[in-house]
Design goal:
The protein is of the alpha/beta class and 359 residues long. It contains 11 helices and 11 strands. Strands 4, 5, 6, 7, 8, 9, 10 and 11 form an 8-stranded mixed beta sheet that branches. Strands 1-2-3 form a 3-stranded mixed beta sheet.
Length: 359
Amino acid sequence: MSREPVRILAPLGFANRLTRRQLIFGAAGAAGATLLISACGDDSSDPATSDATGATGAPIKASGTVNLYTWGEYHDPDLIAEASDTIGVDMAVQFYAKLDKSKLPNWGNIDPVYLGREWDPANEWAVPRDWGSTGFLYDSSVIQRDLVTWNDYFDAAANEASGQTSALDTSDNILGPYFWANGISWNTEKQEDLDAAEAFLVNEFAPHIKAFDSYPSTKIAEGAYSLSAAWNGDARQAYIRIADAGGDPEPWKWVLGAPMTEIWMDHYAIPGDAKNPDGAYAWINWMLEKPIAFRDLSYIGYNMTVAGTRELAEAAKLERLDMIYFTEEQLAGMEGGIVNAAQNRKVEIYNKVKAAAGG
């Protein structure tokens, strides 16, 4: 087997903050499509001579090669071919490779409940790694009442936690809590639902937001927020960070979003032209070993797809297991996300919310 390292295609800033939504080999999750793009320049490129303004409406000019990792039939091949002549860029398009399960002998360690999902019904393209959900944390020394629903989250943001509230920094996770609070699927495409969400989020919620923070555990430990929407693993991490900083985590209360919230699942996928696919298979297969998956779970605080890890977590007496494992009642209130015709509108609303919040 080749000793060439398995490389991560990600911005340099990811090196110090590798998280579940920035994991290697790309993403094939339930809630959205991830396109991985990297640029390779050439010695003749000269940024000073590039037409980067686009002021006349003409295409912006550039040079070199752009690597685009995407799904099959997701981009018009004619546009790919025209890129070189029109904008001076050579497009190198790569697709995710269909899995060779003979190179994943530990595939059988995956709990069957996580297989056959709608985004990969035959499990041909991606290996499920972990999954989780969304809720919020609040400081009960500041908000001295019980919060149990997304409506409570919005109400506290407008009152006790005004100016001390953080929201997740994604369009779906900005709009989702509003829809769930009002008994609407976050996959809605109805114009009236989107209009109502925009009016509330821009005019009534945004003025109270302090920051858009997808990983608020660090800032929570620093005392920056009183109320934070969070993915469950990062919320669990907040308790650890608070204690490590010498604070008392007990006033902080975790609430899984209700009456509805999301369920997401992260995956490993391998680019179709990967230079070291055997290395990638070796890594994925290793991560599917139960002891290794348990160590992964212990570190990130998300439920692994490998069967038997819960028993190891219970035997090890990991703290706050209720933030990793959910009851049947809680699971019944979770819905997966899909990319549909409303996606662009959701992004527009998200941008308006950020603008209204000054973010």
